[in-house]
Prior knowledge:
Strand content: 5-15%
CATH topology of the largest domain: Rhomboid-like fold
Distance between the termini: 64 Å
Structural class: mainly alpha
Number of helices: 9
Number of domains: 2
Shape: elongated
CATH architecture of the largest domain: Up-down Bundle
Helix content: 55-70%
Number of strands: 4
CATH class of the largest domain: Mainly Alpha
Amino acid sequence: MSLLQRLERRLEPFAITNLTLFIVIGQVFVLLTSMMNLIDVNLLTLVPALVQAGEWWRLFTFVFIPPASGYLFIAFALYLLYLYGSALEHFWGPLRYNLFLLTGWALTVGLSFITPYSIATNIFIGGAVFLAFAWVHPNFELLLFFVLPVKIKWLALLAWAGYAFQFFSGGLSAKLAVAAAVGNFLIFFGADLLRALRQQGRRNPAASLRRDDEKASATDARHTCSVCNRTDRTNPELDFRYASDDRCYCTDHLPSRQPTATSDKAAS
């Protein structure tokens, strides 16, 4: 029994169901209260230096800060977060999903203290939820721009590319945020990823051997068409002839009006 399974047995009674819904409601609350100037979002952000100065609530409140964008985008982003999170909770069960979010939070908070004066966001926690959902349900389709159906695995590949770009081109705080999201994903899916890579590795040698056999067949061929390079080995159903220019042709490419050589140079 793995460590995660042992934790599940011990902590299952303490799992929070519908945790994503609470996060979405919290972000909507922060959005509305900030619009009414009842709260300053800057007091909720995670700045490790301020946490060390005594503003401990920032360790938790940054999770409830909504995306900084237009209202339509925020509504769409929160809907997708709820969709992905609820699907993962249904797939894993409440406790493992709780642990997934808790791990993402802990990595984000822990790594943020390396750059104590930078603002750490919750964007990559949501990003880890997206990557996890795409791994579990790769063929799930989204309507891009509400029109174009796209499988989520392709969007996940774009997300991975974006993370790689931010990691290699961004500053240290960006690198740490990406490391938190990717680390969270690997903790829960690393074994599955390695298994998939091993299976792919087992298939590749076979494909390589097939390619080598094809090359060997072409090299050992008695007759090779000078136009299409098909041979009596790769295409034994074809007939090959030698024309007056002393070049070999398959019957599909034999030049017209040219006499062919005697049958001792032909392959049936």
